[in-house]
Structure formats: structure tokens, C-alpha cells
Amino acid sequence: MTIRVRVPAKVNLHLGVGPLRTDGYHEVATVFCAVSLYDDIVAESSETLRLTVDGEGAHLPTDQGNLAYRAASLLASETGVKPEVSLHIHKQIPVAAGLAGGSADAAGTLLACNELWKTGLTVDELAGLASTLGSDVAFPLYGGVALGAGRGEILTPVAADVDLRLVLAISHQGLSTPAVYAELDRLRGDAATTESASDPEGIVAALRRGDVGAVAELLCNDMQSASLSLRHTLANVLELGGGASGLVSGSGPTIFFLARSADEEHHLVAALAPHCRRTLVVTAPVPGAQLSYTP
Ligand code: ATP
């Protein structure tokens, strides 16, 4: 049997970053939003755990260094089955881009292997395992829009009444999430362990009442100054958006702009294209990881 899972990338419409905790993580108050940019995972029976990757991630490790491989190992050990699966990931989500592609692959792998091995975990149980793999791994199982608390793994769905069109500016080179957090702490200095996270309440209310104008006004990322500090050219990309609201996604370097009309979308694509690796137009929010079967 062949199991296929399509799993979305995310942007953070709001990323409030609070204090550095004693366990090395930061407290966050974030609004995840799943977007129509996907990785596809194919899982088939095999005598061992094998992984291949093509597309955006062709250079990624295919052993324990890959979050998808770790996800399959974890599900097997937690449920007492042998990790017998051949996984193939077709990556369209750029790597180290602030779009949580690795987390998406891990989430999709949990769902695919749970189906292939008939281990019968619920999505909530898979999300529990997911959050031990990484702070952003549970969200792609649900998709849509969700508030993330704790280090991002405590999720509350948000009934967002919006159909957003976002223009993504993808950079030539990725940024390391730990490096951006370290830069944020450096910029915050003595306040790094006391700073409170920006409050997402306003943008959550705007999403619920379908007020796209207010959503555009309220986009917020506490990490943006650190991403810009490590990658000065990102400030120019933000300026290229003209009047459109733009924000660094997660730890960056991807920048997304909220297009308010087809005209604005075309202008954004034309203005950004010469200054980044590629532009992508996506819709949001979209559902989380979706399963399909080939007998
Ligand atoms: P986030 O937004 O969750 O911080 P990101 O989008 O910035 O993440 P990812 O593409 O998820 O970054 O990957 C970050 C690093 O994780 C990569 O540089 C790579 O070394 C490692 N990695 C491990 N497995 C994967 C995978 N399946 N896909 C992408 N990266 C992976």
C-alpha cells in the first residue's frame, strides 16, 4: 500500500516572543496560519527505514539529521512497531526559510506512518508526539489558523473568517532559527529574560470578524529586528512592498505581503521578483496535513 500526505507550510501573522526560559526556549504568543505551499510525502512498506528527498530539499540529510526520519523513528518506538517504511519527500517548501518546512515534513510523516503501520493514534495523540520533535511540528497536523502558546506547541484553533492572498519573497539563502533567537537576545541585552511577548489579541479578533484591513495593520513579528540585523537586505525587500503590509515570516528570511487586490498582487510580484530567489503567491488559511491512498 502507498500512503500519500500533502502538508502545508505556515507563516506567523503574529509572532510575539517573550522571555528566554531557563530551558533555553523562548515563551511565544503566536498566530500560525497554514498557506497553500506544500510538501508531499509518500510512505510505502519496506524492510527498513529509508528516506529520499527531492525538490527544495535535495541536499538535506536522509538519516537522523532529518526531522521526518526522526518522526518515523519516534512513532515506531512509542507504539512498539518496527520502523519499516520507505519515505519519499517531494519538497516545495524552501529550507530554513521561516516557513516550517521541516516541521511540516515531520508532521506529515507521523500521519503517513500512523496510517501505514495501522498504529491508530488520534490526531491529538500525534500532535503530542509532534511537540516533542519541535515547537512548530504539531500545527501542520491541524492547519487553518491557530494561536500558539508555550514555545508554540500549545495550540488553540482560531475561527478565522478570511481568505488571504499572500505574496512570498523567497531569499537566496536561508537563516538559522537558533541564530536569529540568539541575535534577538543579544539586541535585548539585559531584558532578554524579562521581555514580554507582543499580545496577539487584536489580530485574533480581526481574523475572527473577517476584517482583512485590520489584519494587515496588525501584522507583528518581535523577531523581525533580529532577522533584519543578520540580513540587512531584508529591509530593502520590505520597502519594495510600497503601501502593502509586509512581515518577516517566523525567523525569516522569507517576507510575506498581504495583497489587498489582484492589482496589488501583480505589482508586488513584479517589484519583488528581481530582488529575491523567487516569488510565490499563496492563499491562506488552508487545512492541515491531508491523507490519500493508492492501493
Ligand atoms: P521554523 O520556521 O520552524 O523555524 P524554518 O522554516 O526556518 O523552520 P526548516 O526548513 O524547517 O526551517 O529547517 C531548518 C533546518 O532543519 C534546516 O536547515 C535543516 O538543517 C534541518 N532539517 C531537518 N529536516 C528537515 C526537513 N525535512 N526539511 C527541512 N529542513 C530540515
Summarize, please.
33% of the residues lie in helices and 31% in strands. The chain has 10 helices and 12 strands.
Cα-atom Rg, whole angstroms?
19 Å
Could you say which structural class the secondary elements and strand pairing correspond to? Answer: alpha+beta
CATH topology group: Ribosomal Protein S5, domain 2
User: Roughly what fraction of the amino acids lie in strands?
Assistant: 25-35%
Helix count from the secondary structure assignment: 10
- Number of DSSP E strands: 12
Helix and strand pattern: EEEHEHHHEEEHHHEHHEEHEE
Sheet with the most strands? 8 strands, mixed
The first-level CATH class name: Alpha Beta
Shape: globular
| Gross CATH architecture | 2-Layer Sandwich
Distance between the termini: 5 Å
The total tally of domains equals 1
Q: Regions with pLDDT < 50 over 5+ consecutive residues?
A: none
Helix content: 25-40%
Q: Give the bound compounds.
A: adenosine-5'-triphosphate
Mean pLDDT: 96
